[in-house]
Amino acid sequence: MSWILTLTTFLPLLGALVCLLLPREEVGLLRGVGLSVALLTFLFSLGILSGFNGQTAGFLHEVDLPWVQALGIRYHLGVDGISLWLVLLTTFLMPVVMLSSWSAIADKVREFTVAALVLETGMIGGFLALDLFLFYVFFEVMLIPMYFIIGVWGGERRLYAAIKFVLYTMVGSLLLLVAILYLYVKVHQATGTWSFAYADMQRLVLSEREQLYCFAAFALAFCIKVPLFPLHTWLPDAHVEAPTAGSVILASVLLKYGTYGLLRFALPLFPHAVAEVGPLLAALSLAGIIYGSLVAYAQRDIKKLIAYSSVAHMGIVVLGLLMLNTKAVNGAIYQMLAHGISTGALFLCVGVLYERRHTRRMEEFGGLWAQMPVFAGFFLIFTLASVGLPGLCGFVGEFLVLAGTMSAGRTAFADVPLFGKAHLYAALAATGVVLGAVYMLWMFQRVMLGPNENPKNRKLRDLTLREGMVLTPMAVMAFWLGLYPATFLRDMNPAVHRTLVAFKEKYSAGAADAEPRMLGQDKNKKEEGQPPAKQDKEEGQPPAQQPAQPPAASPPGTGATP
Amino acid sequence: MDASFPLHLIPLLPLLGAIINLLLGRRLGKGAVALVACGSVAAAALVATRAVWVLGTEGLPSGALVDRFFQADWIFSSGDGLDLHVSAGLMLDRLSAVMVLVVTWIGLLIHIYATGYMEHDPGYHRFFGYLNLFMGAMLILVLGDSLPVTFVGWEGVGVCSYLLIGFWYAEDKNATAGRKAFIVNRVGDFGFLLGMCLLFSLIGTLKYSEIGSHMQTLRQPLWLGWPAACFIALLIFVGCTGKSAQIPLHIWLPDAMAGPTPVSALIHAATMVTAGVYVVARTHVLFDVFPTSAKMVVAGIGAATALMAATVGIVQRDFKRILAYSTVSQLGFMFVGVGTGAYAAGIFHLMTHAFFKAGLFLGAGSVMHAMGGEGDITKMGGLGKHLPVTRWTFFIYCLAIAGIFPLAGFFSKDAILAGAWAARFQLARQGFGPFSVEWVQHFTQDIYPKLIWSLLAAAALCTAFYMWRLYFVVFTGRFRGTADQEHHLHESPPEMTVPLMVLAAGSVVAGWVGVPAVMYHEGDWFGAWLAPVLPPPAQELSHSVEWGLMAVALCLSVIGIASAYLLYYGGISEAARRAAQILRPLYLLLYNKYYIDELYDVVFVRPLKRTAWFLWYVVDAFFIDKVLVQGWAWMVSMLGRAVRYLQNGEVQRYLVGVLVGTAGILWVTTTLPPRRAAAFRLSQQGRRVTLEAGGGSSRVGLVYRVDWESDGKWDEVDTRWSTLTHEYPGQGTYKILFEARDPRWGTSSTRRRVVHIE
Fold first, then answer.
1. pTM over 0.90
2. d(CA A431, nearest CA chain B) in Å
3. What is the arrangement of strands in the sheet containing B723-727, beginning at the earlier edge strand?
């Protein structure tokens, strides 16, 4: 089944090539091809799910082929319980997005379809890549089509927004590249082989100072993407100017790259740096929650309001990741999915309004419920999902993050000195619960409720069949995520647990003194020196190690007592 | 011990009804919508009754019915040593049995009433969809076997309340009232969520049945020496103040009257708002922990709310607003009940209150239905003869809420008052600062309970007064509305009057299940039913005291009714107007609800808005985006401009640049190498001093020399040397000069050092 990841990743690219061959005027055909490719990709990605078993250690469906042999670059894809759902979120959203832009994108349809499909390849590949070079390539591949989507099909200030988006992301990703290359060299120093492999980099132990610098580069790149306060100002501009499809993809998937990158790369590679700067990041994410909510409350443009609500929601995700226990991290990933659905759907709803009225200013609307009752129902569902109502997608993640944050100091991973103020963190994060209701309901009231006074709104059409087909799957997912989280948590939990065990193992092994070393090696080298200390560690861990064994990457402690 | 029962049917039936009505209701027609709505609730009521029957007859005194259908984990996370397992489990014990019966049966009556009341509303199917949704959520709330499941229902009823308050959304006022209710409730939920998470972080479970076995952990001090249970209890109570409209979060309930009247009856009187009382009773083990500061807070807030709302109720003019304040006040009574440890009394009052308050609201609906939507009681009057059923049922409700023997309110209110009188709080085992331990004990065990009792007694007096003021002004005297309104006055249809009569009958007999033991020694059947779940009050009162309290309460009710009779019988009397004139400041204070809305506006709402604007315009748009982000871009472009200025095409300028650059390079290359190379280190052994030249990588072509005694005798040095030794002839202090010279430019640099030879 190892072909399935490659197929899922590159099918959209193939579709893009097909679209390039089609004549420019065949608008309907192009749209049809785009939609069917996206649908087909979704079906194949469901194939990943069919053979998936979250309990299996490591990654599934792995493909590991040499790509640039001289440099040790490999084409290495694999999926685990963390990336699985993000990939599925991506493939699920793309058909929806394609369908939603059916009439919204009337100009340069071929180019749009190509851009969207290339973007899809980049997004799927990025989540699956297990070679840091490959990841970086996919990470950058996403940038270009998005730049065009904002810059070509966007609103009035589209160029400003597109350039801001690209420059901002580039600043981060260049530093990321430098840090990846640094790790690459260090891996060579420690092992003698050139490799970008994720597994090698994860076993690489650097000194604290090196970790700090590399973590800073990684974290900056990903925190811009999240976006973490105060690096967020590109987001409202990009969202407001992007066409509906762009906003949906941006909010639902691209932002997830920030938090996914933190979880997959920044945290496990540099545990000592995390312990040191974690409180700062936690403070920023809390600031983002409160600040984003308050600024959202001051907006007049619906899209801008939703953009700032993203800042607040993603703040919760980052906080959850930093709490380093399975509840909070599970919650963070769950919140990523939920945010993908609810915020994506809200942008789709704004798109529906924009197509009818060509404005997004709230004061232009009011009392639309009577005109568009079906639309009102959908809009209400997504608004409440965003507010975090139990039974809808937003609650599960929020609850897990809060429970995890509150108990951060009492879990098996608590020896990372980061959790002195966990109670305070939880209390501050929970203010988002109140503020979220304040701005979302205010928005809902201004758009949907009250008297319908604007004559331009008197004759608005309710949803068309196509729009209904766009919003229905989103609503179904919003309920599914809220009502039956077990579907998602079942496979997510073991992967999260493994990630955290690896994190803790690397953290407890201590930072390198000067020379870089590999985790496994170190044990053999210092075997005689400190077996008692090692046993201590082993004893400290048992609660953490009930079902899953430590990852195969590091030979377990049994070898230590021959 | 526990037996299985398909409890999930109870909430699922109304939820199913809600789904049908919301999705298909528009096509179904009103008859079918009403049938689905009432039928699903009736079915739920029957299942619930059967479940309670099973619970009562199968000899499960302390056990509960559980639902295995939902026992799979709903939210879970494992592997970090503190596993979270939230199952979507339902449980029916004797406490939830009371709630389930009240919710389903009174809910059914109100559904039936609403089929008549909402007859002509275009949003008929939407209304019943929401109402069924509410029933489902409320039943999840009371049946949930853990805090998170309760929270699901808790939030669900909040949303339904939001939707139903703003049901007539075309008016901004209604939409705003709904939003206010939701946000104020969310402030409470903030506490609820945190309390839940804190509890979980300490004991790793949130199931009601398991909390009790972790009390050892929860008694540990958490902060400032107070036990964790206190903080959790108070956080959960914050949630309860929101849902049950207690000070300081009571402000939403009066505004919530913007919704249709059956909603006010069902949600904002009989069921949802009592959820807070239920949750406190449900988690009573947390409140019972020593020191009982959490209980003192609950009782204190309850008593203060009871009196505050009752005084406001005296002067209001809007029919439903008076009833709303009455609800807030009665909820305060219930909180005093659970706060003083008289849990059964609090739940008892919850139950009896559900009958007469639902009836009062439905009566109000009937009156307003007849008046064409008019709600101002000063425009009514003399309605008794036009609406006989409404009038006489309303008469019974007013007697019941005033606490006249032997109606329901008398028994439940008496139980609460007795509980408050008997309460003994325990705050500390040692004194606080200036207060000795005896003083603290005296305060918490003697003064504080009596204080609460007096507040409640005053509130009871006000209750009797404002309810009968309402009754007399509306139903007696002469009609004060327009002739057109008078012409249309009519009694409501049977689907509205029958529920009124049923509720009136309930208001009479519901109290008889809890007759105090002093009247009839096996009379407190209700307390006995709850005894396995809720502990009985710790202190018993002597019979004479109990009789005395009862007499006082009854007297206060009679005084209240009598004064209302004197002032308002047959319309608002001249004396009542004069009293309002004389006490004008007080009247205005009460009429404006103590200006609490205005206060919150100044303290919370406006600062929040201003902060939001400030953060947006000044911090975000200006500082972060303009100054920081675009500032970088600006700096880059400025740098570009500066460089462009150099490239202006003037050859003279370029030449100057070349010259200055060359001079700079020359200076650097000639001066720096000797200076850097002139570093040296000395080591001394007796009279022998060794000089070691170091530093400076550009030693090429440099010439070194050293003058050991500063006497002008320079030792030229070979450039390849590394150390040089000199032996001094005798004692003394010598100055060593060391020079590095670049013979190409003639630049040199000298360092000096002093040595002492012993």
1. no
2. 7
3. B680-685, B688-693, B723-727
